[in-house]
Amino acid sequence: MDFLTGLARAEQQVASFDSRRVIESPLTDIAVAVVLSGTAFVAAMFADYDSIARGVPLLVTALLATAPQAVRRDRPWASAALVLFGSAGAAVCGAVHSPVLVLTIGVSVVLSYYTVLRRLGRWSAWLVAACVSGASVLLFLDTSRSGLVLLMVIVGVAVTTALIADMRRSRTEVREVRADNLETLRKQAAMAERARIAREMHDIVAHSVSMIAVQAETAPYTLKDLDDQTKREFADIASSARNTLTEMRRLLGVLRADVTSAPETAPQPGLALLPELVEHHDGEVDLDVVGEEVTVPHAVDVSAYRIVQEALTNARIHAPGARVSIELTYRPALLVLRITDDGPGPSGDTENGHGLVGMRERALALGGWFEAGPGPAGGFLIHAGLPLE
What we know:
The protein is an alpha+beta fold and 389 residues long. The protein folds into 3 domains: 17-180, no CATH class; 189-255; 271-387, Histidine kinase-like ATPase, C-terminal domain (Heat Shock Protein 90, 2-Layer Sandwich), CATH 3.30.565. Helices cover 66% and strands 9% of the residues. The protein contains 12 helices and 5 strands. It has helices spanning 3-15, 19-23, 26-45, 52-66, 76-92, 99-119, 122-140, 145-222, 228-255, 274-279, 298-318, 354-365, and strands spanning 285-290, 324-331, 334-341, 369-374, 380-387. The longest helix has 78 residues, at 145-222. The relative contact order is 0.07.
């Protein structure tokens, strides 16, 4: 792996870093609770109070106003109630004489307030913000200039926090809609790929059934000394074969989605055309065959070719210029495909790629298995097994 490939992979890892997981982690909440509680404890210990009888309640209420942050997301309402109760108790016990303690408890109150707003609906959240602002106005409107400053701070924090919660709620809604759309697109891609597989399987089976019908119809003319009973049986075989073709066409019409029609007898590519496919790929490709080559079922032949074709297409789009290695392993009852490249590796959710959906559908339709993701030495790996029996 050269320097540019490593740099591209590092950039993708940084871009895919989800800070939201870190922020919303329970360990983060515990860390916040520890920091706030420790700060409140130190501030309460050095606060200016008249007696031990006044200092102990201040210490207890200060910890009660900050420690519940450890369960802020799991128990938002209970945590908010404890924080408010502790804040009121700390205010009564003289917390206002310690600016550090006031700031620490204020941060705890804002965090609990924000968490509660996130759990409410949009209009309910703004109603709570309006109630908090109105209550603050009633409490501090007739106070001194410092009280008016405090009123402005409280109202500003209440409205700003409600606005931030509303923005986060909107982002969450957009993210959910986008996820639903991606899931819908993935299902549509899977349905389209199943329709394509159905068309290919129809062509394969239709050819065989057509040969049965033709041989059954011509047998009475090519074989001598057939009695009437045998001729009738051949006629029944030919009739059953034609009926089977008719039913297959009807079934295909039910399974087929909005895909482009193709002639029913269109030839399907197979593993024999892999060298030609590799030759037309824009980049270096290594093709290795392990084990003794055997004749594989037509369905496996077509599916294996399509999987390799789609893998090369993905490499050309997502890792241009990367070297691709294709390994076909013939086992007694299994054909294993292993396709790797030395590109930057997956850049997002590998489960939602339409090409990967198609490859997975093909493998599973044959009773096989399919895996896709980062390669053991970097790059991207596609690993599939197709049963030969």
